[in-house]
Amino acid sequence: MTNTAVDEPLLTGLPPVLDRHTRLVVLGSFPSVASLRAQQYYGHPRNHFWKILGALWQEDLVAMPYSQRLETVRARGLGIWDVYAACEREGSLDTHIRNARLNNLDRLVRECPGLVAIAHNGGESFRHARHTRKLGLPVYRLPSTSPANASWSFERKCQAWREVFMVAGLLG
After folding, report:
1. Residue 67 in 3-state DSSP?
2. Could you give phi then psi for residue 160, rounded to 5 degrees?
3. Dihedral sign, CA of 122, 106, 51, 59?
4. CA distances (Å), 88 to each of 47, 48, 161, in order?
5. Between vectors from CA 139 to CA 36 and to CA 172, what angle results, nearest 5°?
6. In this predicted model, what pLDDT tens digit does every residue of 53-90 receive, in sequence order?
7. Is 47 a catalytic residue?
């Protein structure tokens, strides 16, 4: 008798984009298939992440090479990471994440002494706010930049992100 159930392979996330000057870290859930393939955060062309940052900072981040985007976010005090280090998932939807392994989020306060706040990009990430709140910093829930979050307009997402970036001192 053969087992017809096929286990999904364990997927591994991307390394964090953090440094000692990080003031705000945005935590996603786990990279999409497109992001993993490109080895780039928010690599799906319809994801609004880079477009939102570009609108907030008045820079065309989408047109920049990825390495230059990362230089820009670091220079502006933004960190990027995910709550999950690894998981099993078919496709890119958060609802398909199984057997997830959390990243060591405690390292944020050790590696980022200038950290003033943590923001979760979307609901799946925010499910782990109890862990980030233990770090003693303000924690925010941002609307997901995913193309799956079609209920929020680009302008509405930008406004929500702008408020958190202002509080963290990343605008101005």
Report:
1. helix
2. -65, -45
3. positive
4. 21, 24, 29
5. 85
6. 999 999 999 999 999 999 999 999 999 999 999 999 88
7. yes
Q: How far is CA 114 from the centre of its chain?
A: 19
List strand residue ranges (DSSP E) for 30-114, in order: 78-82, 84-88, 98-102
Question: What gap in Å lies between CA 151 and CA 147, rounded to an integer?
Answer: 10
* Coil, helix or strand at residue 34: helix
Compute the residue count for the chain: 172
For 100, phi then psi, to 5°, come to -75, 145
24 membership: H or E segment, kind and range: strand 24-28
Distances (CA, A) of 171 to 18, 114, 164, 166: 18, 16, 10, 5
Instruction: Report yes or no: 69 and 61 within 8 Å, Cβ to Cβ.
Output: yes
Q: Which CATH architecture has domain 11-167?
A: 3-Layer(aba) Sandwich (3.40)
Q: What is the pLDDT of residues 94-137, one digit of tens each?
A: 778 889 999 999 999 999 999 999 999 999 999 999 999 999 99
Which of 47, 104, 121, 149 is an active site residue? 47
Q: Could you say which DSSP state residue 17 is in?
A: B
Contact call for residues 122 and 28 (beta carbons, < 8 A): yes
Q: Collapsing DSSP states into helix, strand and coil, what is residue 76?
A: coil
C-alpha distance from residue 96 to each of 12, 23, 52, 93, 99 (Å): 15, 31, 26, 6, 10
Q: Which two tokens stand for residue 94?
A: 């958060």
